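pinned: reference chain
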Amino acid sequence: MTVVPAMRWLLRTAVFASVTLLLVPVAAGAAPTLFRIFLTDRSDVVSYGEYARVGNDVILSLAVGRAGDEPRLQLITLPGDRVDWSRTERYSDAARADHYASTRGDEDFAQLSNEVARVLNEIAVSTDRTRALALAQRAHDVLAWPQEK
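pinned: its structure tokens
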């Protein structure tokens, strides 16, 4: 596919063609998710926000500056073959889940609970048993936990 080489060239150009560092101020009040990228030499690097895999490279934002200062970000590239992907992806999944739980989890759970209560009430007061069964089946299909294969 021709898009990936073009993207790789563009990202490499943005990172390596200039001698100056690409430093971007971070918006005040932003609460980014930090992602650890575990390397095969047992060290790790912290990405300020999501990292991107482009071909066999990893593009990430590295926070630079002294502690307490407003973080500034430097875009860096790492070779993907230096990354312990199974460990990195497990950590990333957990970080995303934690971020979701702390930002949207309560709201989504309340919305889901209200919808379940509404459907159960509709089933309970329904005099059309065929419709009630269809509602229950549809609710089951929506709420069923995915089974691992």
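why pinned: The first helix runs from residue 3 to 16. Strands lie at 23-25, 34-38, 44-48, 52-54, 57-64, 72-79.
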